């Protein structure tokens, strides 16, 4: 079999990202899209942006990751389905060989991953606390009427970052309002907010873990230079923000699909670019067959059922193509 | 007479004993169904807000059962082993149920082995006499029940989990040659398929096998707990800390997964101690999972998959012959 290109797709709750790499693992295409609560729409849009440059026959493998990985796998026909922690780790150690610590902050969650010799040795993930994620930064920027892109730049100008309570999103917000009323200038407040987020991240995720150099900072929030500075200041070391920092999950899963191909060439399950024009729909229903009352998701492609997700017992998803759904 | 045994807390430790005991005394035994959303909702509605998850689940089972039976059996476990105590929440359990649920007729008795092991059975005897005046019959029932319990323990020492022995339709036979994981936590969390989101089955589906503190004889766990500067007086602290050290010393574990329930005070200390010790002495990868009634399954699955990748698959870039966690 000829080794062609590999497509990696990361469907998260905030962003949906696609990366295409060639057989030499060079990045041909990287796309970052907002999910906006409609992962299938974002997915189709992503494919549309790829298909005129990549021929369908060229695709040797497809991988999916992120919280929507099973959905994407069913719709696309994926060869590899993996969690986002592994995907992020693979991408970081590929772009920054020798990386020991990954700080990842996305829209809805944050992760800390520790590695040694390219192998993950420990990780932690926060999915519950809002005060450590990109959405919170976005919200605060909006409240202060500052374009998100300017946020980092302004924070860098701070002379004396003010101390803001970062334990919880609600407290942080009221503390910021208080500091504003005291007349603190906006740059100092922004820098203070970055520091609060960093402290929150370290308290929640790093708890007693030793963070060795090289330290990589990735995820959507890594665009914010104020955050990078705050990490550097608090950890007292250099922080590397790799190129493609905001699509690392998609890159990682594309790499995994490629590595697996190299170990053992396979014939891809990819259904083709037609998916981009397909009528994709999900429907939720509550199963009444036992008192668990699962909210089952039924996925249609052109009015045909292609699979099910979210049933606890497998009553429906056992009808899925097991390989496609990346389960079992 | 029909007696209901709620499927929660000590259920997973003592069910074979009590089922046999009651049956030998000619009492019909009814157990609640395995935890599901309905049971959990019943429990969350009725229990005090800051109760730990398993206590809420227990409330749910009680509410589910209470109108189907003449009596509910809710013993007061004070101490399971010499010089140890059980979690304080167990002590107040009968009263919590009676007052919060305006409940039903509760059969209860204090059971303690604090002074000596035999006291426990003395308690059982006194309790049995409440059911039948025939002391001989009670003694015989206790003996038969004890034999059942012993067989149950023997099976657990072979690697069977309570859920394999109690509510499996077919008996699952553990395969200790697969990649082994210690799952550390309370039996009533680990074996509750719904509350634990079927953790054990998930690991087995990946292709691994599970060992838990239930697979370790208590005497062995006590020896290992001696490594702590002060012997804990909570028996489950001995089981979990000592048990996980025993497992780490005796089996080629890939990693340790700790399952905590939100709102459990004692756990927060023991988990910390266990994690530190296992990491330092055995360099074992450790994953901490906390469950409560709101826990999303997706987050748990992601962590579990990543842990599996990290401990079993290790490298995805091909060169996976690097030394483990050096
Ligand atoms: S999908 Fe399965 S577990 Fe969920 S409600 Fe239906 S029968 Fe019950
Ligand atoms: S030990 Fe923890 S989980 Fe168990 S009953 Fe006590 S507080 Fe609840």
TrEMBL record, chain A:
It comes from the Bacteria. InterPro entries: ATPase_BadF (IPR002731), ATPase_NBD (IPR043129), CoA_E_activase_dom (IPR008275), Dehydratase_Activator_Redct (IPR051805). Keywords: Iron, Iron-sulfur, Membrane, Metal-binding, Transmembrane, Transmembrane helix. Signal peptide: none annotated. Its cofactor is [4Fe-4S] cluster. The chain crosses the membrane at residues 243-261. The keyword Cell membrane does not apply. Residues 7-257 form the ATPase BadF/BadG/BcrA/BcrD type domain. One of its GO terms (molecular function) is metal ion binding. NCBIfam families: CoA_E_activ (TIGR00241). This is 2-hydroxyglutaryl-CoA dehydratase. It comes from Carboxydothermus islandicus.
TrEMBL record, chain B:
It comes from the Bacteria. Pfam families: DUF2229 (PF09989). Residues 2-216 form the DUF2229 domain. PANTHER family: BIFUNCTIONAL PROTEIN [INCLUDES 2-HYDROXYACYL-COA DEHYDRATASE (N-TER) AND ITS ACTIVATOR DOMAIN (C_TERM), BIFUNCTIONAL PROTEIN [INCLUDES 2-HYDROXYACYL-COA DEHYDRATASE (N-TER) AND ITS ACTIVATOR DOMAIN (C_TERM)-RELATED. This is DUF2229 domain-containing protein. It comes from Carboxydothermus islandicus. The lineage of its organism: Bacteria, Bacillati, Bacillota, Clostridia, Thermoanaerobacterales.
